[in-house]
Design goal:
The chain is α/β, with parallel strands linked by helices and about 450 residues long. It has a single domain (about 65-375, about 395-415), classed as Alpha-Beta Barrel (TIM Barrel), CATH 3.20.20. The chain has helices at about 80-90, 110-120, 140-150, 170-185, 205-210, 215-230, 245-255, 265-270, 290-305, 340-350, 355-370, and strands at about 10-20, 25-35, 35-40, 50-55, 60, 65-70, 95-100, 130, 135, 155, 185-190, 235-240, 260-265, 310, 390-400, 415-425, 430. The strands form 4 sheets. It has a 6-stranded parallel beta sheet. Bound molecules: zinc ion.
Length: about 450
């Protein structure tokens, strides 16, 4: 809490009986000036400015930070795009997204491609957008320039990425990239599945697809990456952990002082292999959704801090590429679009397990912001950006395609009843108006250099 009587007059004050802060859930007013939180204190009628009083059934959450979003623009804009992705983000309470370097054309593997991305995004974004770059074979000479141009970190694959223009690094290439990124004090993000453990699986059966990407594919790849991080000192982030068998490896690595963080995704926590119907390729993603017992272990890992954060891995494609007509898991694009639904999907499950909104705000806002190095994002705290969400945690709704703002409406959550409704989203103190002028900024490594 900060003494609200000192300092400049706020332009906006948001009051709520339940404000989710790093110090707990408190009744408070959040004072905002020039887009920043300037004070948090008890309600004070003497303070000027426009007052927004949240309803009794609403809490004030920090805007979520989703560090794993495939926007696909430029080049595959028919798959998603900055306008639709950021509108969906705002509707889902997400005020910052970090775009993945692949599936757009060109992929973000040199500074010119990053400039193209930024040009494509400029003026279209309803929320703030940052960019990961790629570390691929042959772009060693580009990485320093990418970092200087504001890339927040570098993503690599240990196996085929699904698109030919973004090839994987072999173990030597990963080691060299790790050494280089350690020198640059950057972050190495890895899609970790061992290609030797992964096989092709055609057909409509989910079981065969799941067996084609076993737990061992993840454990072997993560073990190898941990050893590389240990040798090189690089900061390592394991993307989309699906197998709970990975958790002891992460725990042991950290106990040894290896700098490694890890994320999981809403679909691994909320969906179960046992429930995937034959041919239901809207459930296909890589690594795969595993059994219910595995999901429970992921929840334990999250609660125990072995998994650091939950991000969407929003990876849409045109519905035709999901091959629903044939239902062939082998041929279907692997990816689940959930940017707009991630918060209620996670909250629905979290509250059943006795977790709080403060836990969720940590996993989905504060920690991802910290991993991406965005010091002004992710928490309701003095000095941070006033990115805020009015959330009704007890209201439920049924997911129907017509409410989806993503470019494509196909979702494995269709028909599910979820708890938690985003009523309103603020970006730097101003309400996001989906039909209004986009005010999202393009973020660089130092957020205050945002040029939106
Ligand atoms: Zn991804």
């Amino acid at each position: 809490m900060t003494d609200a009587a000192a300092g400049p007059a706020p332009e906006v004050i948001i009051r709520s009986e339940r404000v989710i802060t790093p110090r707990g859930i408190v009744p408070a007013q959040v004072e905002i000036s020039s887009g920043k939180i300037i004070a948090i204190g008890p309600p004070d009628p003497a303070r000027g400015g426009a007052v927004v009083q949240l309803a009794a059934d609403e809490v004030l959450l920090p805007g979520l930070v989703d560090t794993h979003v495939h926007v696909n623009e430029p080049g595959r804009t028919e798959w998603e795009g900055f306008a639709t992705a950021t509108a969906a983000a705002a509707a889902g309470g997400v005020t910052t997204i970090i775009d993945m370097p692949l599936n757009s054309l060109p992929p973000t593997t040199d500074a010119a491609a990053l400039a193209q991305k930024r040009a494509a995004a400029q003026g279209q974004c309803q929320v703030d957008v940052g960019f990961w770059a790629g570390a691929v074979p042959g772009n060693e000479g580009e990485r320093r320039a990418l970092r200087a141009a504001g890339a927040l970190g570098f993503k690599s694959f240990t196996l085929d990425s699904g698109v030919p223009e973004f090839p994987p690094l072999d173990p030597d290439g990963l080691e060299r990239a790790a050494r280089q990124l350690a020198e640059l004090d950057s972050l190495l993000l890895v899609h970790a599945e061992d290609p030797d453990c992964v096989s092709a699986a055609d057909g409509r059966g989910y079981e065969a697809f799941l067996r084609s990407r076993p737990d061992e594919a993840e454990t072997r790849a993560v073990a190898r990456m941990v050893e590389i991080a240990r040798r090189t000192g690089v900061r390592l982030h394991i993307l989309h952990v699906s197998s709970a068998a990975v958790l002891p490896l992460l725990g042991a690595a950290r106990a040894d002082g290896v700098r490694v963080t890890a994320e999981t995704c809403p679909h691994y926590l909320a969906l179960a292999a046992e429930d995937v119907p034959a041919g239901a390729t809207q459930f296909k993603c890589c690594p795969p959704i595993r059994e219910r017992a595995n999901a429970e272990l992921l929840w334990e890992g999250l609660r125990a801090g072995m998994l650091d954060c939950v991000v969407s891995d929003h990876s849409p494609c045109p519905p035709a590429l999901k091959g629903l007509a044939s239902g062939d898991f082998g041929g279907a694009w692997g990816g689940i679009a959930s940017l707009q639904l991630a918060l209620p999907v996670v909250w629905t499950q979290a509250r059943e397990r006795g977790c709080t909104l403060a836990d969720v705000a940590g996993w989905m806002a504060a920690v991802p912001a910290s991993i991406a190095g965005l010091e002004t994002k992710g928490a309701i705290e003095v000095g941070r950006d006033a990115d805020l969400v009015a959330f009704a945690p007890d209201e439920s709704f049924a997911v129907s395609p017509d409410m989806i703002v993503h470019r494509h409406k196909l979702t494995p959550y269709a028909g599910q009843r979820l708890t938690g409704v985003v009523r309103r989203t603020w970006l730097r103190g101003r309400g996001v108006d989906p039909g209004g002028e986009p005010r999202g900024r393009l973020l660089t490594r130092r957020e205050d250099r945002g040029d939106g």
